[in-house]
Amino acid sequence: MPVGLMPLSTITWEDAIRYLVLNKADVILWHENWVVHSATWETQVPSVMMLREYMKPKMSVRFSRGNVYLRDEGKCMYCSDRIERKVATLDHVVPVSKGGKTTWDNCVTACAPCNSAKSDKQKGWKPKIKPHKPDYYELLNKRKKQEFNIRYTEWQQFIQ
User: For a surface tag, which of 43, 91, 108, 120 has the fewest beta carbons within 10 Å of its beta carbon?
Assistant: First the structure.
């Protein structure tokens, strides 16, 4: 497969529409039953697109609950139990009530029982791994270790 046709990433449907309107991409495949409307316009949502020019990916890492979960590899940082993403909680090592901030260096993944037991305490509660801001490649490598789920069957033909 030529490098120009290799799937590089997924984007939101909103970004797909933005690239379409700004004429920055060609649509290779459309979602069959997905149409979006505005007051004066409607279009099918692109499923597979090819950018007309290479766009360098953003290498900065956004702080989010999901990215903290990824950094911590789905484990509670207090008891080391593996937790489902849906039920994982975000814990502030230094509680917000004690001046703690919502930052990479102060937030960890925790199971509900540990987070509840810790509450706003600090004494006796130390994460197994010190929280830190990961770089792009650390998160990328951790994501590669996880199961890969192909969201739409029509994408299968582009992934080999």
Answer: 120
